[in-house]
Amino acid sequence: MSLLQEEREIILGNEYVDTFDFAEVEDFVKNASKELFISHHFKKKNKMLVQPRGGFPTYKKQFALYEFFVDANVDVLPLTIDSNTRLNDYGTAKKMLRLSEDNDVDMLNGYPLVNHGYRTTRKMMTHFNKPVSLRHGTPDARLLIETAIASGIFEIEGGPITYLLPYSKNFPLDKAFLYWKYVERVCANYSKLNEPINRESFGPLTATLVPPCITIVIQLLEMMLSLEEGVKSFSVSFSQSGSMNQDIVMGAVIRKLSKHYAAQIDCADAAINLVYHQWMGAFPTNKDYAEQLISISTVIASMVGADKIITKTREEATGIPTKEANAKTVANTQYSLGILNGLPNVVDQEEEEILTEEVHSIMEAVFNDPADTLWRKVFNSIKNGIIDVPFSPHIINHNEMITIRDAKKNIRIIERGSVPISDRCYAYERAQCDLTKDTTSIVNDIIHDIGIMQ
């Protein structure tokens, strides 16, 4: 028995898991409908896929949500996981699920997949026969992804950096890398049986003034960590930044460099897709403005030429969106995409050149770390501040990089900390901003920039 299989049997021996039948699950994946695989839909490339967010605690409410989405012409169904499951607290999730079912009140903020189990959940997935994306935010997702794939969920979002630095304060980063290595290997193994399992990185990070170079570097590194374990379908992603120009440049650079760095590790045969998140920062409370913001982000996604767009709703600022609001935004986004039908993409050459240079500089510094494996090089680079995510709560993150918006709303680096961008690029970034103001004024500008869409 392989070491991985030994570890899998230990993980799946969890007290909250019904008996896991490896042979039956393998047989299910082998014979599963191609329609369940997002990698199959990406290959068809007919149109940009539209995916909302959404997760309810009970099977009944999740099923009803999917019915609404299907009526709204959704391309990809979401399965958002509750926060107890994200923290591997399956005991509390089980109690809250029971309370939710008994009282018809949502006691969880998502679907407790482990507690429902794969036999139950699979009935829902195969009933709708559409690709489902697992959205979760879990540093240790080993049990969760085993249950997801056994249920017929063949896209797994997240990664050791993107699901840790924005969400966690103390969870050990080195453990996260090893737990996600397990995820990659399991996904790679199942990918040999049918269409590939698609892995998707979480580009928005903290969704708070993250400069494009940091977003792209982390996307490329999570892609490489996944591909080196044998994954054959991967989605890089980023979210609306607040500057249309910057988004178009980011889209061009991330597409070009993901192919470049995949080839560097002899994985040019892997399918790399691009995902665009509608605005992930604080939403306007005015619902009409919220709808305008959603429409604009759909236009940008079309200009970027994204393979998939992840939608928001007009209720974003006021609480968890209803199934009606979620379905409405899917229908509106599909309508907008139908009108746009692709747009000319004119990339700002100077911005593209600067951003490309910044990304190459940081990537080179990561690769030059003396550690013997890529994950250790990345770990050391975060520990040393070579990769620095603004507003990350994690204790390992340096938080020395300071960013602000320029007059055109582009995110600019005004303090680089230990991030090794060249003096030329740094001077360019700073030159776009008015730095003659006093510190208080600059801090006030940053606070304003965080709430720019409100």
UniProtKB/TrEMBL annotation:
InterPro entries: Cbl-dep_enz_cat (IPR016176), Glu_mut_E (IPR006396). Pfam families: Met_asp_mut_E. CDD domains: Glm_e. It comes from the Bacteria. One of its GO terms (biological process) is anaerobic L-glutamate catabolic process. One of its GO terms (molecular function) is methylaspartate mutase activity. Keywords: Cobalamin, Cobalt, Isomerase. This is Methylaspartate mutase, E subunit.
